[in-house]
């Protein structure tokens, strides 16, 4: 199973070096902040980026292009996280452009499919899920889909509707198979050592994306060992 570690805007130089040493021999995908990408290069892990510019190149001060990430050994790029929507007002079109740049530079998108509480309660046809899937560029050969219910992110005391998660996975899988897109589907949101055994029972799950649990070494160690 895949295990993706989204470190978000956490850790500084000394702590990131200690973290790299901790995961050095682990088969994970690690997503550090941009300034620390170069500290991750020679372990068993694979390197990913938390974001990428929607622009391929040009005068966009502060942006980081896909070509630049590829040159640093980045293999995966996280795209479409709910925090990009909430705090930076990014849209599906932005995410489509980012996926196009990622794929054009030989990296694999980790595309986040989010679900709001309102959609969970009222969107029985999963239109919100389908609208996000429609942003996947035509001609995509492979990507990772991370299903992350926004109402469960950061909530380790969450109650999980496994049947619903499985129905979302099936919706995603059917959509991608109809378009001959190879894929892996993973889950994120509220994952902890207390519920990892339950979440492993999700039919079709091929891995997990962690954030808060990724930062606590004991929790990460437990979850990592659990899914091996």
General description of the model:
Helices cover 38% and strands 19% of the residues. With 228 residues, it is of the alpha/beta class. It has a single domain, classed as Aldolase class I (TIM Barrel, Alpha-Beta Barrel), CATH 3.20.20. An eight-stranded parallel β-barrel has the order 1-2-3-4-5-6-7-8. β7, α8 and β8 (207-210) form a beta-alpha-beta unit.
Q: Which secondary structure elements does this structure contain, and how are they paired or packed?
A:
Layout: E1 2-6, H1 13-23, E2 29-31, E3 46-49, H2 66-71, E4 76-79, H3 82-88, H4 92-104, E5 108-115, H5 117-122, H6 127-133, E6 142-149, H7 162-178, E7 182-188, H8 196-199, E8 207-210, H9 212-215, H10 217-227
Parallel strand pairs: 1-2, 1-8, 2-3, 3-4, 4-5, 5-6, 6-7, 7-8
Helix content percent band: 25-40%
Strand fraction band? 15-25%
Task: Output the number of helix runs.
Answer: 10
Total domain count:
1
CATH class: Alpha Beta
Proper CATH architecture: Alpha-Beta Barrel
Can you describe this structure in just a few lines?
The protein is an alpha/beta fold and about 230 residues long. It has a single domain, classed as TIM Barrel, CATH 3.20.20.70. The chain is globular and about 45 Å long.
List key phrases describing it.
single chain, 228 residues, alpha/beta, TIM Barrel, eight-stranded parallel barrel, 8 strands, globular
């Amino acid at each position: 199973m895949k295990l993706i570690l989204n470190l978000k805007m956490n850790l500084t130089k000394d702590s990131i070096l200690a973290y790299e040493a901790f995961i050095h021999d682990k088969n994970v995908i690690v997503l550090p902040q941009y300034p620390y990408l170069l500290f991750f290069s020679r372990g068993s892990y694979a390197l990913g980026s938390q974001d990428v510019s929607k622009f391929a190149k040009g005068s966009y001060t502060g942006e980081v292009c896909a070509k630049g990430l590829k040159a640093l050994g980045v293999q995966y790029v996280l795209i479409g996280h709910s925090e990009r929507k909430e705090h930076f007002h990014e849209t599906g079109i932005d995410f489509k452009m980012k996926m196009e740049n990622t794929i054009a530079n030989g990296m694999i998108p980790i595309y986040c499919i989010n679900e709001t509480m309102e959609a969970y309660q009222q969107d029985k046809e999963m239109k919100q899920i389908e609208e996000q899937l429609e942003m996947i560029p035509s001609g995509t050969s492979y990507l990772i889909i991370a299903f992350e219910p926004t109402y469960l992110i950061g909530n380790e005391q969450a109650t999980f509707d496994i049947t619903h998660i499985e129905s979302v996975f099936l919706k995603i899988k059917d959509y991608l198979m109809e378009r001959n897109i190879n894929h892996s589907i993973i889950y994120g949101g509220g994952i902890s050592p207390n519920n990892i055994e339950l979440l492993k029972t999700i039919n079709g799950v091929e891995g997990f994306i962690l954030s808060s649990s990724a930062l606590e070494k004991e929790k990460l160690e437990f979850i990592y060992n659990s899914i091996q």
